[in-house]
Amino acid sequence: MTTVQVRQNEVAELTFEAAVAYEDPFNHVRLEAFVSTPGGETLRVPGYWAGDSAWKIRYASPETSEHRVITKCSIRRDEGLDARAATVVVEAYEGDNPLYKHGAVRAAEGRSCLEHADGTPFFWLADTWWMSLTDRLRWPDDFRWLAEDRVAKGFTAVQVVAGLYPDMGPFDARGANEGGQSWEADFARINPAFFDAADRKLAYLVEQGLMPCLVGCWGYYLDFAGKDKLRRHWEYLVARYGAYPLMWCVAGEANMPYYQWDVFKDAGKKAAYMARHKAEWTEMAAYIRSIDPFGRGLTIHPTEYGHEMVEDASVLDLDMLQTGHSGMLTVERTTARIQAAVAREPKTPVINAEACYEGIGGTSLADVQRMLFWNCVLNGACGHTYGANGIWQVNDEEQPYGASPTGIAWGHVFWKEAAALPGSKQVGLNKRLLARYDWWRFERHPEWLNPVPDDADVYARPYAAGIPGEVRIVYAPIHTVFPGLTVRELEPDVPYRAFLFDPATGEEYDLGRIVPEAGGTWPTGSLPVFHDWVLVLERAR
After folding, report:
1. Phi/psi of residue 241, each to 5°?
2. CB 486 within 8 A of CB 528
3. If you average pLDDT over every residue of the chain, what do you get?
């Protein structure tokens, strides 16, 4: 009997060889394992075809001690796959990787933020690497370099698509990696070699403490491949990657038709199309939950609101938003959508999962990245997703991505140049400021600032959030520099010290203890330099 030793939340892999020769193992054979845990549960863990006669079971657990495994094959006479016993011994993890130390990520009990399995709050700062499993982001040097760069900047997650990509049709050569396409022609069967190459990259993200948010496919593959094939696709992903401490994303731009289809241009047809997809993605989300023994978090990437991509938003652990790519014009629209999503009942943690990739269209530069970050988190989002034009599609220096199905390219910036754009470093600096405090307890407090009239001629407003009596954080856009800010409703019995934080450099300017005016207001006066600022008031010790 095989025995495998791993530490808590690390992946144990069991390999089996079929004793029967199968013409089409992916379509004709099923393998699963029943795992008896030390706590008395029995988990049904799916296995996956690894190519040729090889099959694998992957398993992980936070529960220490022995986990007993017995396999079951749909072809009961196959002695290589059926009734095979193994033991997985899980030992205590003593390292610093948060995904192993604290476990996978889920919606917190109050459903306003995310947390690890042990209750430790998880701040979502994701980067957008949609096509990073293709061979344009080379393994190992380039992929590792980018992952390490993002870890150094403070990122905690990466959004990545599992082979069925956006911005191209099925079997486009740009979707391949070293192992080929993710599926064989006509979606005849999965291609394990594609996922062998993907394994190295996804495992490295986890090893670096970056949580993969794995997108099963782009939404229009529901039409290209069909519901049954996508179910098989998801069965394969759950079996192969469910043991990883990741989050599932059911689909990207889930209800959007393919770019060149007539339904995309006809409002009536598009509405009917979207209604049908809404029902089918709801069913798919429920199916993924039903086959996932590890209970990983689940979300869906939208054209606008994630909760509108499904009929029943309770199937989601995270409400993703997409708010546009129009630079400064996107900022206030983003804020309004975040506020609306956060106010929804029943509550779901909210993330802006796509907005204003840095550099797209020659705009959406670092100032927009800072504004979007603070406008989102100070209005109730549980983190933020950043993206850089050139990385999401992986523009190789010698092999840029090229044109979309529309015939227009999004840009040709080399991914490594895009990785050096200042916005990625700056959102990381701002996340580190927020992480000094119990950010998961923050609530928005518009009453802490003088209101800005709805008809004011400004492209961005200041926003405030925090914990009464403990800390207040205010994002001050550039037009507030000359008049300054007026902080309101300061508690008379709470002494505050204040400082200004430069969101572009991380430099701090101490303002000392503040002395409120009568009525609990405090005017900052003009701010020192003509750019945006973060004002922090924290209880003086």
Report:
1. -120, -5
2. no
3. 97
